[in-house]
Amino acid sequence: MVSHLQRKPLNESRGSVTLLQEVMRKDSGLHYVGFRLIELAPGAVYEETLDSDECCIVALTGRIDVTQGEHVFTNIGTRESVFDRKPTDSVFVSGGQSFKVAGVSNAKVALCYSPSTRPLPTKLIKAQDVGTEQRGKYQNKRTVHNILPDSDPSASSLLVVEVYTEGGNFSSYPPHKHDRDDLPQESLLEETYYHELDPQQGFAFQRVYTDDRSLDETMAVEHGDVVIVPVGYHPVGVPDGYSSYYLNVMAGPQRIWKFHNDPDHEWILLR
Questions:
Q1: What is the CATH number of the domain that holds 77?
Q2: Which of 5, 87, 132, 261 satisfies CB 3.0 to 4.6 Å to 266 for a cystine?
Q3: Using 50, 70 and 90 to split pLDDT, how confident is the model at 1?
Q4: Which keywords, in A-to-Z order, does the entry hold (predicted)?
């Protein structure tokens, strides 16, 4: 039985656009985070007018044109597969604006949403400006692409990162959480994980649990799934022979990523 926190791919045709995933606040139980994943054929167009949300448009794979008012960003995107393991281009659009995404090639596009708390300029986030870092050691290694980290003032509430984890490793580990509005110790941030696996028949494991175990779900996550993290710790484990990619969208009342490790497992960091 699939967990209420796990969303399988939709693959719904919406004219020239295919809707692969849709996890929006109206039906997800989340208060701050929204996520859509669309697929475009060459020449296909997706249009949207934002109301109270801001949006980061991530050229996940393929090439796209993005238009917002007088801003036109052509032929953006850098990879044929997320497992090319290089950063890609994104566009940030503030609340109250309309935008259009057109497929230049076959393309997969992530639309990441959170509340827009103040108007901000539309911005192209170039691949070469995306910070890359290595985290962890031993069997806790992963590569992170910081598309919209909390150090970047381009967004008012939205945080977006990509993470690669090789087989036999854990990420989001030791288990950490960010579900209390208790700065400077911890920030309240909801989160979604969009997962891909290489090869695609693989799977990973993700557990979402709270200290009191009032929420405790362990999921076998397959290619194209989304996991919703409303609260709690949320580690990911990747079996040998497969590589994991996930795109994280985070947002909360304050745009600060301050996490709290599970004290039962924090000793791992002292090795």
A1: 2.60.120.10
A2: 261
A3: confident
A4: Isomerase
Query: What is the C-alpha separation between 100 and 82, in angstroms, rounded?
Result: 23
Instruction: Report yes or no: 206 and 175 within 8 Å, Cβ to Cβ.
Output: no
Q: How far apart are CA 42 and CA 36, in angstroms?
A: 19
Percentage of the residues of the chain whose pLDDT score is greater than 90? 97
Judged against a pLDDT cut of 90, whether residue 271 lies above it is answered with no
The total of structural domains in the chain comes to 1
What residue numbers bound the domain in which 36 lies? 9-270
Query: Could you report the per-residue pLDDT of 72-118, keeping only the tens digit for each?
Result: 999 999 999 999 999 999 999 999 999 999 999 999 999 999 999 99
pTM: 0.97
How far lies 116's CA from each of 38, 70, 156, 190, in Å?
Answer: 22, 20, 6, 15
What percent of the chain has pLDDT above 70? 100
Residue 228 within a domain? yes
Bridge partners for 44 per DSSP: none
- Alpha-carbon dihedral sign for residues 220, 90, 95, 22: negative
Mean local confidence (pLDDT), 154-165: 98
Which residue reads 């909801």 in tokens?
190
User: Is 1 contained in some domain?
Assistant: no
d(CA 4, CA 23): 12
d(CA 115, CA 132): 26
Alpha-carbon 19 to chain mean position: 16
Count the Cβ atoms, other than its own, within 10 Å of residue 8: 11
CA angle 162, 236, 226 (to 5 degrees): 65
